[in-house]
Amino acid sequence: MTMWEKIYLPAIIGGMMTTFKHMLRRRKTIKYPEETRVFAPVYRGQHVLKRDEQGRENCTACGLCAVACPAEAITMTSAERVKGEEHLYREEKYASSYEINMLRCIFCGLCEEACPKEAIFLTDRIVTTEFEREDFIYGKEKLVESLDDRIDITKRQFTGKRTEK
Questions:
Q1: What does the DSSP 8-state code read for residue 34?
Q2: For labelling, which of 8, 58, 121, 130 has a CA lying 20 to 30 Å from the CA of 147?
């Protein structure tokens, strides 16, 4: 080792130069609620259970999304549609309860790929933060899209199942 290497001066100077370079760069931090980042079209965020054109739920409680989920975050119970509920559910069998544990979910998108009825999709919305663990178990009241505020999923990556209109 040379004298310069023994006293670590080149290494210290190199480290200080790197530090000063980073100090002069533009910061990447944003002020979140006021400013939002532009997400890629393939971003997978909060789940939504879609409705058809008549406002009926698409989910038929087949359970393929729960089987496809590697984190086992989806649970559901099925029920038979009774007479008079034709305007609520598309098929004779429907999900009476549908829950996703967002703490277990890894947002892989396998649930939306497995769904034959195109009932579940991952949107571009950010999952809200909570303080209690129980608040991260999303039921149908948080997952089913409302009739007034329909969620547009056409910007998502084309899966081959949806038809372009």
A1: T
A2: 130
Strand ranges, E, within the chain: 47-49, 74-80, 93-101, 120-122, 137-138
Q: How many CA atoms lie within 13 A of 24 on its CB side?
A: 6
- Euclidean distance between CA atoms 143 and 120, whole angstroms: 9
What's the CATH number where 81 sits? Answer: 3.30.70.3270
pLDDT tens, 105-159? Answer: 999 999 999 999 989 999 988 888 899 999 999 999 999 998 888 888 776 655 5
Q: pTM, whole model, 2 decimals? A: 0.74
Distance CA 33, CA 49 (A): 26
How far apart, in whole angstroms, are the C-alpha atoms of residue 44 and residue 29? 22
User: Is the residue at 66 inside a domain?
Assistant: yes
For residue range 1-23, list pLDDT tens digits in order.
777 677 788 888 999 999 999 99
Range of the domain at 98: 47-143
Q: 163 lies in a domain?
A: no
In a domain, 64, yes or no: yes
CA distance 52 to 54: 6
33 domain residue, yes or no: no
Q: What whole-number distance in Å separates Cα of residue 125 and Cα of residue 103?
A: 16
